[in-house]
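Amino acids appear as letters; backbone shape is given numerically. Here is one record.
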Amino acid sequence: MAVRRVNVNVTASESKQIGALAEKGVAAAFCDAVRIETADAVFLSVSGQTPIDDEGRTVGTTMAEQTCRVLERLRRIVEHEGGAMGHIVRVRVYVTDISPEALRQVHVVRNEYFPPDARPASTLVQVSGIIRPGAMIEIDADAVIPWQVTAGETGIR
């Protein structure tokens, strides 16, 4: 099998519900994820996810609530492509607050989504802002989804 690239768009909105783009009718210059298919596995690079609902409104008032929403959005995309959270091998986490309490909240929630035997490599950096008003966190991810998954895992059929 040759390598094949597929753009993945789970979100219907061409503007990705980014206010500045939607107001001017400009399509976002990115997709929700890029899927690279090889003979052995699918490599999935997921664009940064922010804590928004399906209408593009920022949700959650705590770092924990927003982290949960972001990880749910990541899960939705990975599962859409036949994978599971355990297939995520790397995340990059951008936060507006790196206080001890904020970091604790992020990691408590991450531990609910990534058990000890399936934790991804990770980078976490503080940024001055996130594209969504009121957002405190954004996470992007890379997953490796084998074509043949072991019993009990969600995978490509």
